[in-house]
Amino acid sequence: MKNIAIFASGAGSNAQKIIEHFRYSKKARVTLIVCNKPGAAVLSIAAAEHIPVLLIEKEQFSNGNGYAGELQEKEIDLIVLAGFLWKIPAALIKAFPHRIINIHPALLPAYGGKGMYGLRVHQAVIDNKEKESGISIHYVDEVYDHGQVIFQAKCPLLQHETAESLAQRIHKLEHEHYPRIIERLIDGYGPF
Description:
Elements: E1 2-8, H1 13-22, E2 28-35, H2 42-49, E3 53-55, H3 58-63, H4 68-73, E4 78-81, H5 90-95, E5 100-104, H6 119-127, E6 132-139, E7 149-156, H7 163-186
Parallel strand pairs: 1-2, 1-4, 2-3, 4-5
Antiparallel strand pairs: 5-6, 6-7
């Protein structure tokens, strides 16, 4: 049984889908929610699902060991970023090589990097008159949205697309594919 830690900063809709996907799995389970915002809605999900929470602090995370020791003590096998906005420090990447993944709401390498998240990404895609967008699931390295892409799914942009309407369709892709790709990694389809 593999232990998954989900890092989230906000509402936690992807976290909820991942928790539900693995609820009765014999392969893996979500055993920890790591959050950097005391009032984040994902904490309510953790409470409702009876999943322990690790609230983290910026200085210790960024300039310390990235809480690697605490994660290792909890026997975490895979770290899944789901709307987590802080850059992952090198110490944590070194402690969990090829065991930290992220989902990005665009087709990397386009529209990635610092500050590119949420509606900002979708508005940039629309402003550049792209024909399609999508999601990218990738390994995390020391550079924002740079690690090796594991999986992408696409959707066309519609005629009167807004950042909000595109965000809704991208969320559907995330919810459909992220739990499934995590399971494939756990099954051995990748370096993990």
